[in-house]
Design goal:
about 475 residues; alpha/beta; Rossmann fold; 2 domains
């Protein structure tokens, strides 16, 4: 009889699908736990780090320093990285069950939510997720048809992602040239005709989701005015009362009132922040020419929260592009139960469950946005991962073990399928290449934005070694 899984005689074999913050924090929590294990992290791209590489704005380099922590995690001999391996294509759910006692899904929320209005599918109506991927060098979005020939762009939403895309659109390209922004995006931003970005939020300033730090950054942009209508800052009694308990909202409203008093500078680019406004139709003859918006009012819902309700007062705003930033949603993984209501992997406290019977799926877990939905910041994934790992440790005693116990069996399997998997040492070859290219230009790195080119550089680096 085999020794219990998780002992030195029989280490637990654990797979993590996804190499973003949630995946790395899960590995960290497992390494700190009182359990013997080996951990294999799988990622669709050769490059690790998920949203840290592909989502964090290029002018927020300090946030990206968190990768130093992830480097230390994967340096542990119990952890291996398998990049350029796609779950559901290169390796199937049933394959994973042969090799691993426990599987953790850390795949994030990869799609955007839609507004559901006429004209949303026009070419210049884009999800902010795609636009963020475009300027961050995400391989899936390098052919995105970004057209910056119009002087006015609308951004729908007032969370931090909406703030990021607005800031990138109006920021001085010479400042962006000192970051790791994708080269093609930088060139297009240099040629941009955009002079004004109109941000619209369906609720009021007291309900906005952005942080004070992001809002403060707007007011510090060189050559940019922040325009706020003082009438938008006249709060209803419920919003005013909410500021007493929400210090962030109170600071935001105070800062917005300061912006409303500033005199605009002739010739400056403009960020126009509008509240209680919802797009109801995108107008144009095959392309975006204007957006019809409706004025909202806040009404108290049955649960005590304030929701936006249309007033039937409409306005048409001429714009040449619209970016929607109204939320992210998860997408199903082949063979993994999915909650179609919340767009998450079906789970209870991190344990995957069957979507209909709600019975626990043995040995399968979920972390991050795929678990809880798109909420929180990078650091939020750490306690979230610890919570899921606690469930894993509780279950490991009674779990049936996977048939294949040899850690090298997964390597042989991938090789038999001719999968060109990338190790962490391989990634470091690409990392060194990108940083060397960046150093020549006084930048943190120059990103390689296509998978074939990434693999070519890695193969060349292997040969040199």
């Amino acid at each position: 009889m085999s020794a219990q899984v998780g002992t030195p005689e029989n280490p637990a074999r654990i797979a993590i699908v996804g190499a973003g913050p949630a995946g790395f924090y899960t590995a960290e929590a497992l390494l700190k736990a009182n359990i013997s294990c080996t951990i294999d992290i799988f990622n669709r791209f050769p490059t690790p780090f998920g949203l840290v590489r592909e989502g964090v704005a290029p002018d927020h380099q300090s946030i990206k320093s968190v990768v130093r922590i992830y480097d230390r995690i994967v340096a542990d001999p119990r952890v291996r990285y398998f990049g350029n391996v796609t779950f559901g294509t290169d390796i199937m759910h049933a394959d994973m069950k042969q090799f691993y006692d426990q599987i953790v899904y850390a795949v994030g929320a990869q799609a955007d939510r839609r507004m559901g209005i006429p004209g949303e599918d026009f070419p210049d109506s884009l999800p902010a997720t795609a636009f963020v991927g475009w300027y961050n060098g995400h391989p899936d979005y390098q052919d995105l048809p970004v057209d910056l020939r119009s002087e006015c762009v609308m951004v729908v939403g007032n969370g931090n992602v909406a703030m990021d895309v607005t800031r990138i659109l109006v920021r001085d390209p010479d400042e962006l040239a000192e970051t790791d922004i994708a080269d093609a995006a930088l060139q297009k931003l240099r040629e941009s005709k955009v002079r004004q970005v109109i941000m619209v939020g369906r609720r009021g300033p007291a309900q906005a989701a952005f942080t004070t730090a992001e809002l403060k950054e707007f007011g510090e942009l060189k050559g940019v005015d922040v325009i706020v209508d003082p009438a938008d800052l006249e709060l209803d009694e419920h919003s005013q009362a909410s500021l007493e308990d929400d210090k962030i909202a109170a600071k935001n409203v105070a800062l917005l009132r300061e912006y409303a008093q500033r005199a605009p500078t002739p010739g400056n680019r403009r960020i126009v922040m509008r509240f209680l406004t919802s797009p109801v139709e995108i107008l144009g003859d095959g392309e975006v020419e204007a957006v019809k918006v409706e004025r909202n009012q806040l009404v108290l819902g049955d649960n005590g929260s304030l929701r936006a309700k249309g007033t039937k007062e409409y306005e048409t705003i001429p714009v040449g592009m619209i970016l929607r930033s109204v939320g992210y949603r998860g997408v199903p993984l082949k063979g993994v139960p999915f909650d179609e209501t919340n767009y998450t992997i079906a789970n209870v406290v991190g344990r995957v469950i069957h979507a209909t019977s709600e019975e626990t799926v043995t040995g399968e877990y979920v972390v991050g946005w795929a678990k809880r939905g798109p909420s929180g910041i990078i650091g939020t994934n750490k306690p979230d991962a610890v919570s899921t790992v606690a469930a894993m440790l509780e279950d490991i005693i009674t779990l049936p073990q996977a048939p294949e116990r040899d850690p090298e069996a997964i390597n042989r399997f991938l090789q038999s399928k001719q999968i060109d998997y990338i190790t962490y040492a391989d990634w470091k070859l690409l990392d060194d290449y990108e940083q060397a290219q960046g150093a020549e230009q006084g930048r943190p790195r120059v990103k390689v934005t296509s998978v074939p080119e990434m693999l070519r550089i890695i193969h060349a680096g292997r040969q040199q070694q």
